Amino acid sequence: MRRRAWAGISGGLAVGLGVIGGELTAAALSPSVTPVSAVGSAVIDGLPPGVKDWAISWFGTADKAVLLATIAVLIAGLALAAGAFEDRRAYTGRAVILGFGALGALAVASRPQASLVSFAAPVVATLVAVLVLDALIRALARWVGVAGEDLPARSSPARRRFLQGAGAAAAVAVATGGAATAVRTSQTAVTRRRSAITLPAPTESGAPPPPEGSFIPDGAELDVDGISDLVTASGDFYRIDTALVVPVVDPGDWTLRVTGLVEREIEITFDELLAEPLVERYVTLACVSNTVGGGLTGNARWLGWPVRDLLARAGIRPGADMVLSTSVDGFTAGTPLEALTDARDSLIAVGMNGAPLPVEHGFPVRLVVPGLFGFVSATKWVSELKVTRYADDAAYWSTRGWSERGPVKTSSRVDVPRSNARVPAGGVVVAGVAWAQHRGVAAVDVRADGGPWQRATLATAISADTWCQYSITLDLAAGPHTVQCRAVDRDGQAQSEATVAPAPDGSEGLHTVTFTVT
Ligand SMILES: Nc1nc2c(c(=O)[nH]1)N[C@H]1C(S)=C(S)[C@@H](COP(=O)(O)O)O[C@H]1N2
Ligand SMILES: [Mo]
User: Fold this and answer.
1) Which residues, 6+ apart, have CB-to-CB distance to 326 below 8 Å?
2) Torsion-angle region of residue 319: left (phi > 0), alpha (psi -120 to 50) or beta?
3) What confidence tens digit (pLDDT) does each residue in 191-245 have?
4) Relative to the CA of 238, which ligand 1 atom is closest?
5) Of 26, 31, 33, 32, which Cα lies nearest the Cα of 121?
6) What is the pLDDT of residues 341-364, one digit of tens each?
7) pLDDT for 460-517, tens place per residue?
8) Is residue 107 exposed (0-12), middle (13-18) or buried (19+ Cβ within 10 Å)?
9) Which of 40, 41, 47, 49 is nearest to 68 (CA)?
10) Where are the domains of the chain?
């Protein structure tokens, strides 16, 4: 074989492993946006309508397959070229790969479902391809010599080392490629099922007045640049998963069982769940791991069936004080029974912001419980509710040093000004969000440079179960300044000012932001 052929094969192995690595990373972190699918979608979006019509008239329903095959041929061409370039001159092949990696990242950025984690896939793909290419081409050069064109015939340790490297890369590609294809195929099938679902309208939708929490009242949104959106877009919603790969659950196979201390065990299917009277509520979720000022909170509109109605149907036996919810991925949460049976709208949720739950957020069904941190309540891909007692059962995080119970702590953060920002002199707008789920936020105070607390303007709350925007304009002289905020709940309790780390039951402290007035 000629040297150029081996260089091309090296390029192919490097890029192939990169693409597989990228797809596997996406499957784990961001299944709705993978580099290859993003490139395909970006091409479809970018084609002029004439070309699209032409493709459909030529290829009919095979147009997507033709597109994917075209992308595959282009990637193969890129791979061969990268190998040949790199063999001729160090860094040139790697530069080609970096360029295409950047294009992949751009394609990912163009997808509406993309979030920050989606970029892990093109980064991994590029890194893997660059590293493998570098290693193989170096081994090839050691075998053939730097300037040599024809391969030395005799066997040498350098030859063996190159062939072993290439063989190992090929073996890894075959193994992981098979795994990636299997994961992808099941995800694609479920994604298709998901987009075919039409969720029923909430049952209360026609009846005026609509219940609190089901709509956005006037005055709930402040007009401040850079403040957290009142409703978090699903693609921007924080994510916490213990599972390495996001579970892919076919709604046709899904059931929810109610077991344990109940009069009668119940098992419901997805279709049966959709036939129950569903309600829609805005609820702000929060993660116990959120640090002061952090982003592990989000507010969404959830559609679901009240958990209390399902539990009432099962009939709770005396002695129970906890519900252990289990996910198909083995995650469990222990929720105080009363939070699932009292008047609050704890939901067996099927919808998020007007669409079926995204796969990453628990499709087809998850729990949403106002007032409690996610680790004790918000089980995604939920498959069983076991009515039990704290004395008899422990949940996933409670056996790993976190608390048994997890009421959300009253908290607030400053969104604007950003840390280290430079803001023009004049009135300085300080704004952000505050939350005290299920107790409700009564007021937010802001202070500058450790001075007296000043009451901020509080937007109208959607409900006690959601966060609230606030804002205040401060007169600050030129120079560096520090602002802090604190929320007060509707029981009159101000948030804790002590500095407390997240473990075991949630962080405490005042969010402090330093910036400069110019
Ligand atoms: N199956 C499963 N459900 C889960 C988790 C998980 O790791 N696995 N994380 C929980 C935690 S700690 C939080 S804060 C919320 C986060 O929900 P989100 O990822 O939809 O934002 O989900 C909860 N439900
Ligand atoms: Mo969490």
Assistant:
1) 332, 379, 382, 383, 384, 385, 386
2) left
3) 889 999 999 999 986 667 889 999 999 999 999 999 999 999 998 999 998 887 7
4) 21
5) 26
6) 999 999 999 999 999 999 999 999
7) 999 999 999 999 999 999 999 999 999 999 999 999 999 999 999 999 999 999 999 9
8) buried
9) 40
10) 2-186, 234-400, 411-517
Closest C-alpha to ligand 1, atom 13: 374
For a pocket test of ligand 1, which of 117, 347, 348, 380 has the largest count of ligand atoms closer than 8 A to its C-beta? Answer: 380
- Single out the residue of 393, 395, 364 nearest to residue 288, CA to CA: 395
Q: Output the CA 100–ligand 1 centroid distance in Å.
A: 34
Q: Residue holding tokens 């769940």?
A: 273
Q: Give the CATH number of domain 234-400; options: 3.30.1510.10, 1.20.140.10, 3.90.420.10, 3.40.50.300.
A: 3.90.420.10
The domain 411-517 is classified under which CATH number: 2.60.40.650, 2.60.120.260, 3.30.70.970, 1.20.1530.20? 2.60.40.650
Global pTM value: 0.84
Token pair for 62: 């095979």
Distances in Å between the Cα of 268 and the Cα atoms of 271, 383, 384 are 8, 10, 10
- Confidence label for 451 from pLDDT (cuts 50, 70 and 90): very high
Indicate whether 51 pLDDT > 70.
yes
